Amino acid sequence: MSESDMPDWEKRFRAPRVSLPDWAEDAPDRSLFVSNATGTYELYAWDRASGEQRQATNRPNGTTDGLLSPDGAWIWWFDDKDGDEFGVWRRQPFGGGADEEATPGLEPSYPSGLALGRDGRTAVVGRSTDAEGTTIYLVRTGEEPLEIYRHAESAGVGDLSHDGSLIAIEHTEHGDAMHSALRVVRPDGSTVAELDDTHGGTEELGLEVLGFAPVDGDPRLLIGHQRRGRWEPLVWDVVSGTQTDLTLDLPGDVSAEWYPDGGALLIAHSHKARSDLFRYDLAGHELTRIPTPPGSVSGATARPDGTVEYLWSSAAEPPVVRSTTGEVVLDPPGMKCPPSVPVSDAWVEGPGGLIHALIQKPAGAVGPLPTVFDLHGGPTWHDSDSFAAGPAAWVDHGYAVVRINYRGSTGYGRAWTDALKHRVGLIELEDVAAVRDWAVASGLADPERLVLTGGSWGGYLTLLGLGTQPASWAVGIAVVPVADYVTAYHDEMESLKAMDRTLLGGTPEEVPDRFAASSPLTYVDDVKAPVYISAGLNDPRCPIRQIDNYVSRLAARSAPHEVYRYDAGHGSLVVDERIKQLRLEMEFAERHLMPTAVTPTD
Q1: How many Cα atoms occupy the beta-carbon half-sphere of 422 within 13 Å?
Q2: Model confidence band, residue 199 (pLDDT cutoffs 50, 70, 90)
Q3: How far apart, in Å, are the Cα atoms of 155 and each of 159, 161, 171, 223?
Q4: d(CA 602, CA 78)
Q5: CA of 206: how far to CAs of 178, 324, 420, 516, in Å?
Q6: What span, in angstroms and rounded, lies between the C-alpha atoms of 9 and 103?
Q7: Residue 320's Cα: distance from chain center in Å?
Q8: Distance between CA 140 and CA 120 in Å, rounded?
Q9: In this predicted model, what pLDDT tens digit does every residue of 124-137 receive, in sequence order?
Q10: pTM
């Protein structure tokens, strides 16, 4: 099909995309980014001085996990098998050459963080396996890996200091996988400092590592905290113990990273599904806005010359890597991504407070419309005013799209995020039901043509919603979902088991009633709507066996359903596969919403 004959929704998937480029700390002209230029998302090396761009990885199912060494000499990338997330780190020279195993002596595992040293030979490598829990190793070229941390609960590498003398670790030894504590150790594993806002698991406050100061001998660690009910940054001197709270007068969540000279911070501020940037001068305590267009900044970095590069989009405008110089940093050649329509905001009264929903609908359309309720994953994530090809495709086909930042979502304060514990899934669906009722009462949504869909956690909520709210939905489309919570727990990767223990208060054996109440399998015989499920055969997050259990129950009573299984993990990095999956989803919805199904607009 030629570009001129291709519908806009397909162009949005095929148009070349790039991520925000990472750059080497000691060789800032060397960068690494992700692109789908070949039709599969892969890593690319970019020499800014010469302008040369080189595809660094080339695997059938794509590669997105990579890191550039601070000296710019090496590209590290994670090598798993067809998306199963279990593998080893490899590296190749920045200018090209053969790949080599980067951490010889370490067996394959799930990754749990990586930090690279400026000396070109040191790495701190986090690993996770079912048998060992989390282990962290100091790896130096020519030496045996040195274990510096081990614990049964989840943990990860935070950062390595500029001079390599300090290592920050995020851990959940207290058993709360949603709220990390921090430990700083020396390269031999001995402890330098501890910081734990959970107070041994008795208080639900988390910490996160944002990075060591980029200055030799500087023990300042930038961290995020939740002491005032939302994420904010502070500077912790891990040697003296001094904590410098920035107390920024900004609503919503705030994160930060260092400017390269260590004298200022680049502030990323998220509020009401939009985001913006600021520069904070540490000496003068001055906060200065960095102009960005209305919408969402999904990544930003300060360059050595003081400029800031950032990846920006809105629901209507496709993503672009911009600079504060006014220039577009990376503009890939080829097909241009068509725009979509803007979102509008709805604030709906729910059982736990006001629920924020983002609404898109075809330009000029008058309701009631067939409506897709597209539930985000996570659950600790949130939908924002940013570009998404999937919702835009539904709008192209005449549907309204409603995205809901239900309780459990980030961006609305700690209490909102933490509210879903113990009544997992059911809490979120109370908010979904409230927004559904609003959408119907407002005249936006046709109550006979409502599609419930989502991926990952959103797929889980889709199946749970079809069973617990069977009269509310005409069609269900669940993408890589949790379907049988008990079997999913036993088969999933170790870090997700820890998260489930935190959310539900124990294992399936310890709290069987909670797992049963939150499992879609419990309600499968109540499902009335036709169900479409897509699943990755190698998915370690929502494994295939538990989906097969759910599908078998649907089949046993001849309930209308279709299942699409593909040879990848928790989603696909192949553009053709993504297009195929969305086309199958839309065709399924259209068949089951007949005779009032809509006609595509392009």
Answers
A1: 2
A2: confident
A3: 13, 18, 4, 16
A4: 39
A5: 7, 32, 16, 28
A6: 42
A7: 19
A8: 9
A9: 999 999 999 999 99
A10: 0.96
